[in-house]
Every structure is written in structure tokens, then in C-alpha cells.
């Protein structure tokens, strides 16, 4: 595989001629490069007018390689041929180098270029590129590649230091100006020479953003915090070293090269909007600077962004009022490192209510808008704090987390959101602080953690109870002045408090079926009709004992009885009730019976849970840990009102209820899933013993004239 390197643009605030004088002092040998033993001039050419000077040298290098490898290779030194082509008229120096030693086994090519800065003729630009292709090397190909890259990158770092060293040496000798080349027939005036000699070189060579220079900024203006940002993403601009350090951070030479090469590839091939440099860098970091892998995931992300118009989401999409009122999350100042801080009160959020009221797509779009806002805040904080900030910190408060948050469709929606964010916003999470984690948290973590990248997981810090208040806690990462008030801090936090979403805002089955957007609940929920004498039943086959059957259902109409049965033998294939006996059709729902009428309870099948009476409007979530393999039947059965005693008059509530179910029809929307016991990895106890705290709160939530309490079953 060919290894390639491309440097950023290095800009020196010195005239080209002075840089050339410093560069020539590197030969025939340079004490600052220990491996550069010496060089001999092989060929040399000068034009008559002195404008062109081509010199070819044979350079001797003492490569820092294991003695055994040198012995196997049969050499002590490695020789390179370097050809320097100086054009004083154009003020350019092109350097080409290739290896002479082992040229039939290893191919090394390097090209360097010194040119005058296009916007300031008294400054000099430097660029460098190289390639390494190891065909064969006595079975040590990988070792030689590592040695070559290590030696090369170490010399790249020294390149700037060496030029600066010789510039200082020239200055100590009183040489601060070297006249430009002029044709022999033209003699510069004494006045020009005199004024030019007074020019003093800057004390140190520095690099500045090329794009900023195009705006006509001086060096002083560039150092000002109010200096405009360099333009990013234009085809002609190039990255320079100072811009990278200021806005992207300290990168190794090879990391710089990966960024530049991937950016160049995008400029040449991508037809749409070019991502900003910091975002390209995130994809590279996510794939350990493997260009091919980073390119693949970034292209997929760019296609995704274009399809969903994500670039315009902050300007064109307004979150529904339900999200603004009940999504308990928001931005809150910044952490000690200057990262934007996002606070999420997950324990106070009704995840089921939000999914039922909005659908997964709206929630996903809202999370995308949060991420887009996070990118914008990172750019803003980079300017404010004067250092690269490319990620944010997320503080998650889990006080109030319970089994309701483990509602399986909600967890699945969360997993899909995590998948989308991981794929399109890599390396944006700098730190995740999880506070007040309750006993049920290990279950949620077990379900979610496999979908989170290893690099991201290492950024998680989890605190149980009030541990966040002690040493190594919140104060290590967030200033005391901005700790939110709900965490016993001094700062008022404007993040919504969440709470239960009113069921009056829930979408009905018909709305979900007719929704244009593909909502998660369309594929997760099924609707069923339950009639008097015709229950609805579903079959769950269990192979391994200790598996967990989970369910979640809403009673949309009427009252029902929920039962769970077990049988060692399989029922007959499901049959849908034609409902002919009832003379009732079943639009928008189905009705299936599995238990044969000849089956006897206790002989052919057994009840494994006590019957549960569920009233109209109730939401029920629960789970059952199976004791035996076999066939489990979940049944929703019509609940008949108890007959009133002859001596007593019917109650008003009974009359109203009988009017409501006069059609002898009930309707449920349900979702079930089987989870293998191994998926919980020891968290089964938490699953069995955790109860919902929302059941008390939900009593105040109504969707009709009656009060509908939300029941939670946990066995």
C-alpha cells in the first residue's frame, strides 16, 4: 500500500531571498538533523543571467533502524538524490528527492516548494508532499514502513525550526536583507537599495491563515480576537499550519496530511456543500485517521444530510409545542474547558408520551437540531476562548428514572437516534456526566451501551445518588457558579421540567396509519379489537427458560382483562374471527383466537399470571420472566360488568360504563417483545424489582371526562 503525505501551507514572514539564504546553509550537512550525515554535489547548472540555478546532490543518511535490520539489508547508510531548481526570476524553489538505495524494493518520492505568498510579496510559503511504496524488503515490509514514517515525520517537525535557526544566525551576522534577482542590464537605484537595506526581518517565522490574508488583514489584525474567520471550503484555498493549530488543535504531521488530503479529495469530487474543516477532522478521528474509512462514512453522512436537508434544519424547522413544553433538555452555559453544556433531565421526561404524541421522526428531528446547534456553539466558543473547541459536554440527570423509561418502543426509538447521531456527528461528545443514577439504570445501560462507539463510551462518567457532590464530582468539570439549581447549585436553569404528556395529545391508531411520515409506532404497535366472547390472543414461543416477555398496551376503548397462559404444545394456526355471530365488522383492527374451545385450563394450558383488569384509557407496561420453554399466549379479553344484586339499584357509574361498551367491543394497541436473559447480563433483578413512579403522577392526566391512571406491571 502506498503511504502518502501532504503538508499544510507554512507561511514565513520573510522575503523569499532571505529564506533561500537560510535554506542553503543546510548543506553540505546540518547539525540539527543528526541523520543527515553529508551531501555531495553531483550536477549543477546556472543560466547565463543567473536566474536559473539547478543543483543535484547525493545525500547520505544514517537511518535510525535496528542493527539487525541494517545487517540483513547489508547497508549502514541510505542514499537519496535531491534536485533543487531555483528560479530567481519567478522567485520559486522546487525540490525533488528520491531514494537511490533499495530503489528496486522501496520507492520514496518527495516534492517541496518554496514560493512567494500570493497576497504579500515579502512573505514566503512552503509546501511539502511525499509518497512511500514498499514493494518488498526481506519480509520486514511493515517494520521498514514504520521506521520510514517515524523518521520522516520527525524531520517534518524540525523543518520550521531549522529555517528559523539559520534566519537567526543570518541576523546575528548582520544579514537582514538579500536583494532580489534583477536582469544584468538593469541596476537598481542607490535610493532603492538604501531603503531596502533598512528592512529588518521579523524576529521569528510565524504562519497565518492564507484565507484571512485574502481579506487584506495585517499580522496585528490576525492576532486580534475580533479578526474574521478564514473562509473554509472554497476550492482554491489551502490549509496553513497556524490556522490548523488555532482552530483545529495540535495535530501530528500525518494527521495534518490526512486532513488536507481528504479535504482536497472532497473539493475535487464532491458536488455539494463541503463540510467545515473541524467536521472533516471529526470523521478522521472517529476512524483513527484512516482516510479510506473516514471518506466512506463521511460520504454516507453527506448524502444523508442532503436527503434530509439537515443543513437548513435550524432555519426551516420549528419544534412542535409539545417538545418545547415536555422535552426536559436544553443548553446551559459551558464547562470548565469551554465546551457548550447541554443539560438533559431524562428522569423527569415522559419518553413514552413524547413518542406517542409525536412519533419517532419528530423526536429524531429535534435531536438533530440539538446537534446542529451544538456545532454552531462549538464554533462560537472557539472564537470566544481562543482555542479549538469541537465537542460539547452533556449532563444527564436520572433522578426519577424508572421502569416507564424502559418502555421497549421508547428504548428502540432511542437506539435508532443513537445510531443516527453516531453515524453523522462523530466525536462531538466531549464528556457525558450521568448523575443520580438509580437502581434501574443498569438495565437501560445494558440495552443501550452496545450501540455506542467504544471511544464515546470512554467519555462517560456515572455517579449514583449524591456522589456527584464529592471529590471527583461535578465541580471538577463545571464551575460552581453555573451548576443548575435542581442539583443544589446557584444557577437558575431554564431547561423545561418535563412531566407527563397529556393523553389528549396522543395520536390515535388511525392518525398513525394515515401519517405521511414513517413513525416508529406504525411498525411497532398493532391494533386489535376485542369482543364479548371473542378475545384477542397472540402466541409467543420461548426456547430458553428465563427469557423475558415484555408488553406495552393502551386500552383505547372499553375495559379488558389481560391474561398470560403457558402451554407445552402449540395451538392450532391462528384464525381470525369472522365476527359473523356478532354481525360486527372490525375496521382498523384484527381479532385472533388461539386457544381451542376444547382445551381445558389446568390440563392443556395453565395461567402464569393473575388476571389484570384494565380500564379504558389505561396504559400498561410489564414483563414476565419465563420459567419454562414452550408456548405462551397473551390474551386480551372483554371485561363484563358484574351483575348487580336484585335488591340494589344500578349505580350511575355502572350505567355509564354499560353505555360506553354497549357494542360489546373493546380496542387495544399493543407491542410485545421477547428479550433473551443473556442480554441483561445480571441486571434481571433490577428489571423484576423496579416500579414506576409515574403511576401516581398520571392520575391527574385525563383524555376524557374520566380520570385515567397509568398502570405499571413489574413481576
TrEMBL record:
Residues 319-495 form the CRAL-TRIO domain. Pfam families: CRAL_TRIO, CRAL_TRIO_N, PRELI. InterPro entries: CRAL-TRIO_dom (IPR001251), CRAL-TRIO_dom_sf (IPR036865), CRAL/TRIO_N_dom (IPR011074), CRAL/TRIO_N_dom_sf (IPR036273), GOLD_dom (IPR009038), GOLD_dom_sf (IPR036598), PRELI/MSF1_dom (IPR006797), SEC14/CRAL-TRIO_domain (IPR051064). One of its GO terms (biological process) is negative regulation of RIG-I signaling pathway. Keywords: Cytoplasm, Golgi apparatus, Immunity, Innate immunity, Phosphoprotein, Signal transduction inhibitor. It comes from the Eukaryota. GO terms for molecular function: RIG-I binding. Residues 521-674 form the GOLD domain. It is found in: Cytoplasm; Golgi apparatus. Residues 3-175 form the PRELI/MSF1 domain. SUPFAM superfamilies: CRAL/TRIO domain, CRAL/TRIO N-terminal domain, Supernatant protein factor (SPF), C-terminal domain. May play a role in innate immunity by inhibiting the antiviral RIG-I signaling pathway. In this pathway, functions as a negative regulator of RIGI, the cytoplasmic sensor of viral nucleic acids. Prevents the interaction of RIGI with MAVS/IPS1, an important step in signal propagation. May also regulate the SLC18A3 and SLC5A7 cholinergic transporters. This is SEC14-like protein 1.
Amino acid at each position: 500500500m502506498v503511504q502518502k503525505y501532504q503538508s499544510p501551507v507554512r507561511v514565513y514572514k520573510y522575503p523569499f531571498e532571505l529564506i533561500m539564504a537560510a535554506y542553503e546553509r543546510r548543506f553540505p550537512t546540518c547539525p540539527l538533523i543528526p541523520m543527515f550525515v553529508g551531501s555531495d554535489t553531483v550536477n549543477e547548472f546556472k543560466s547565463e543571467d543567473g536566474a536559473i540555478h539547478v543543483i543535484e546532490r547525493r545525500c547520505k543518511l544514517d537511518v535510525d533502524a535496528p542493527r539487525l535490520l541494517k545487517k540483513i539489508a547489508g547497508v549502514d547508510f541510505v542514499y537519496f538524490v535531491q534536485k533543487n531548481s531555483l528560479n530567481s526570476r519567478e522567485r520559486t524553489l522546487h525540490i525533488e528527492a528520491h531514494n537511490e538505495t533499495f530503489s528496486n524494493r522501496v520507492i520514496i518520492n518527495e516534492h517541496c516548494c518554496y514560493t512567494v505568498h500570493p497576497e504579500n510579496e515579502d512573505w514566503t510559503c512552503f509546501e511539502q508532499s511525499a509518497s512511500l511504496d514498499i514493494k518488498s524488503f526481506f519480509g520486514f515490509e511493515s517494520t521498514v514502513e514504520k521506521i520510514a514514517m517515524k523518521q520522516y515525520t520527525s524531520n517534518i517537525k524540525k523543518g520550521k525550526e531549522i529555517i528559523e535557526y539559520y534566519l537567526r544566525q543570518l541576523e546575528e551576522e548582520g544579514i537582514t536583507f538579500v536583494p532580489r534577482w534583477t536582469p544584468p542590464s538593469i541596476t537598481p537605484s542607490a535610493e532603492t537599495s538604501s531603503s531596502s537595506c533598512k528592512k529588518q526581518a521579523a524576529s521569528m517565522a510565524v504562519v497565518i491563515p492564507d484565507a484571512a490574508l485574502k481579506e487584506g488583514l495585517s499580522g496585528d489584525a490576525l492576532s486580534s480576537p475580533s479578526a474574521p474567520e478564514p473562509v473554509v471550503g472554497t476550492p482554491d484555498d489551502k490549509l496553513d499550519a497556524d490556522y490548523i493549530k488555532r482552530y483545529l488543535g495540535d495535530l501530528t504531521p500525518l494527521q495534518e496530511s490526512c486532513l488536507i488530503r481528504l479535504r482536497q479529495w472532497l473539493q475535487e469530487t464532491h458536488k455539494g456543500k463541503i463540510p467545515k474543516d473541524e467536521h472533516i477532522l471529526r470523521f478522521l478521528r472517529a476512524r483513527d485517521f484512516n482516510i479510506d474509512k473516514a471518506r466512506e462514512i463521511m460520504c454516507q453522512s453527506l448524502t444523508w444530510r442532503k436527503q434530509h436537508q439537515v443543513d437548513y434544519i435550524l432555519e426551516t424547522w420549528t419544534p412542535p409545542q409539545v417538545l418545547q413544553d415536555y422535552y426536559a433538555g436544553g443548553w446551559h452555559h459551558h464547562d470548565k474547558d469551554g465546551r457548550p453544556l447541554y443539560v438533559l433531565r431524562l428522569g423527569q421526561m415522559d419518553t413514552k408520551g413524547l413518542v406517542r404524541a409525536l412519533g419517532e421522526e419528530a423526536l429524531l428531528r429535534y435531536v438533530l437540531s440539538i446537534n446542529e446547534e451544538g456545532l454552531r456553539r462549538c464554533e462560537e466558543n472557539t472564537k470566544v476562548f481562543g482555542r479549538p473547541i469541537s465537542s460539547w459536554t452533556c449532563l444527564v440527570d436520572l433522578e426519577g428514572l424508572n421502569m416507564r423509561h424502559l418502555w421497549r418502543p421508547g428504548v428502540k426509538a432511542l437506539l435508532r437516534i443513537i445510531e443516527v447521531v453516531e453515524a453523522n456527528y462523530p466525536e462531538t461528545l466531549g464528556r457525558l456526566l450521568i448523575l443520580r443514577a438509580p437502581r434501574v439504570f443498569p438495565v437501560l445501560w445494558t440495552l443501550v451501551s452496545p450501540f455506542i462507539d467504544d471511544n464515546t463510551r470512554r467519555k462517560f462518567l456515572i455517579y449514583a445518588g449524591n456522589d456527584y457532590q464529592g471529590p471527583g464530582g461535578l465541580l471538577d468539570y463545571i464551575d460552581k457558579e453555573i451548576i443548575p439549581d435542581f442539583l443544589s447549585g446557584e444557577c437558575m436553569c431554564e431547561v423545561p421540567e418535563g412531566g407527563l404528556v397529556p393523553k389528549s395529545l396522543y395520536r390515535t391508531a388511525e392518525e398513525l396509519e394515515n401519517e405521511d411520515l414513517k413513525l416508529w409506532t406504525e411498525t411497532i404497535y398493532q391494533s386489535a379489537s376485542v369482543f364479548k366472547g371473542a378475545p384477542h390472543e397472540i402466541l409467543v414461543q420461548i426456547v430458553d427458560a428465563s427469557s423475558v416477555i415484555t408488553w406495552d398496551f393502551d386500552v383505547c376503548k372499553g375495559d379488558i382483562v389481560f391474561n398470560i397462559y403457558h402451554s407445552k404444545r402449540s395451538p392450532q394456526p391462528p384464525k381470525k374471527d369472522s365476527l359473523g355471530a356478532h354481525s360486527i365488522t372490525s375496521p382498523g383492527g384484527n381479532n385472533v383466537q388461539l386457544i381451542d374451545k376444547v382445551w381445558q385450563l389446568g390440563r392443556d394450558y395453565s395461567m402464569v399470571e393473575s388476571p389484570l383488569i384494565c380500564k379504558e384509557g389505561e396504559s400498561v407496561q410489564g414483563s414476565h420472566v419465563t420459567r419454562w420453554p414452550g408456548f405462551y399466549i397473551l390474551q386480551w379479553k372483554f371485561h363484563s360488568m358484574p351483575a348487580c344484586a336484585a335488591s340494589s339499584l344500578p349505580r350511575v357509574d355502572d350505567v355509564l360504563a354499560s353505555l360506553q361498551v354497549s357494542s360489546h367491543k373493546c380496542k387495544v394497541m399493543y407491542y410485545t417483545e421477547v428479550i433473551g436473559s443473556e442480554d441483561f447480563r445480571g441486571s434481571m433483578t433490577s428489571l423484576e424489582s423496579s416500579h414506576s413512579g409515574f403511576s401516581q403522577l398520571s392520575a391527574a392526566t385525563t383524555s376524557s371526562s374520566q380520570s385515567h391512571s397509568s398502570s405499571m406491571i413489574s413481576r
